[in-house]
Amino acid sequence: MARARQVFADARRSEALEAERELRTAADVVEVLGNMKGALMKIGQMASYLDVGLPESTRASLAQLQANAPPMSPALAESVVVAELGASPDELFEEWDPVPIAAASIGQVHRAITPDGRACAVKVQYPGVAEAIAADLGSARMVFRALSVLFPGLDPAPIVDELRQRLTEELDYEHEASNQRLFADHYRGHPYISVPEVYDDLSSARVLTTELATGATFEEVLGWPPDQRNRVAETIYRFSFGSIYRLWAFNGDPHPGNYLFGPNGSVTFLDFGLVKRFTTEETAQFERMLIAMVIDRDIPRFRAEQVAAGLLPADAPFSDDEVEAFFTHFYEFVLTDETRTFTPEYAAAGVRAIFNASGEHAELKKVLNVPPSLVVLQRINLGLISLFAQLGATANWRRITEELWPFTDRAPSTPMGQDAQGWRMSLPQ
């Protein structure tokens, strides 16, 4: 409503309307958090880029949640910086822009210049957001209990506990800084993957200062030629799957506002608050499932791994053919050695396969569970594939993936793969 009013206002009135929209006190923030921010806002963000049959007008409205939430007033943002870093932004930085460049679910981002001349992005957490997310997570247990009526095999407690742990970590910017350093160190010098450096001396638990990144937005990329869209999709794919199998970590928040793009296929990855780090056994379990389903096509062994992972009960009354028919969808794009295009229909089918309680495999879905190690990983099946569908991403994903799987370690199959291999070979052994 505020956006619509601003369209029809003159410059002075538009500025006044924007000021009215600002959140000026912690009390304002807490009130709005219950409606627009916190964990529930993340659901709105996801809905804005998932292909779940939303009307385009609704999707466009929700898309504003990716970067255009109501901002804090300059004075309120500055008060958080003072409380965290012990001085005002004007004292800490050579230059400070009081107008945020982005405002989302946990905090907002300001441009600044450090005293030694480095351009940086300063993320400032909303006061009260921790309390709002705690309330959201209290509701989440009720939501998952309701889902367990439709899916009796679903155990809500581990899911809610996993979400609570991940979202609680996301509130701690020192933890996020540790995550970001992990990825920045691993990918430093990569020809296509970039992660901004963390400036520790200007960071704390509620303020995170990093190198300022620039690039095209996802909306701009959608208007690029197919070959450029394919390149950026390949970079995101290599980053996401390569991180799981080479770094044992997954950056679990793949909404479009977390990427900045270059025309050569380069991508800068932002926001490392929601990161899942996998244990050796969890990663080995993923590998065993992949080898059974994709490499060896051994469905009885795949089923046994599903049981061992806690996805499928050992006594589930379904044939191996039924198990194969349901789970094949999630591996379809790597099952065959051929060029494939991600489509909106494929992305929508993935959402239905997870959440639709009716249909062809309804009875099988009723006995399925989601173990904690797979809660965040499901964002690949939802978020990433939906983004690839919007890009119309086309490649031989099987060959690219075999470059990333350590148990296949295939030779490069694309020019980007050759460049990435050259980078890896240049690293100290």
Secondary-structure map with pairings?
Elements: H1 2-7, H2 11-21, H3 26-36, H4 38-49, H5 56-63, H6 74-85, H7 89-92, E1 95-96, E2 102-103, E3 107-113, E4 119-125, H8 129-150, H9 156-170, H10 173-187, E5 193-194, E6 207-211, H11 218-221, H12 226-247, E7 249-251, E8 259-261, E9 267-269, E10 275-277, H13 280-295, H14 299-309, H15 320-335, E11 340-341, H16 344-355, H17 362-367, H18 372-375, H19 378-391, E12 394-395, H20 397-404, H21 415-426
Helix pairs in contact: 3-8, 4-5, 8-9, 12-19, 13-14, 13-15, 16-19
Describe this structure in words.
It contains 21 helices and 12 strands. The chain is α+β, with helices and mostly antiparallel strands and 429 residues long. Strands 1, 2, 3, 4 and 6 form a 5-stranded antiparallel beta sheet that branches.
Q: Can you summarize this structure?
A:
Helix content is 56%, strand content 10%. By secondary structure, the protein is α+β, with helices and mostly antiparallel strands. Helix 3 (26-36) packs parallel to helix 8 and helix 4 packs across helix 5.
User: What is the global morphology?
Assistant: globular
Rounded average pLDDT: 82
Assembly category: single chain
- DSSP strand tally: 12
Low-confidence stretches: 1-8, 47-53
> Could you tell me how far the N terminus lies from the C terminus, measured between alpha carbons in angstroms?
57 Å
User: Into which percent range does the helicity of residues fall?
Assistant: 55-70%
Q: Which sheet architecture does the biggest sheet show?
A: 5 strands, antiparallel
Instruction: Tell me the β content.
Output: 5-15%
- The assigned structural class equals alpha+beta
Question: Count the helices. How many?
Answer: 21
What's the alpha carbon Rg, rounded to whole Å? Answer: 22 Å
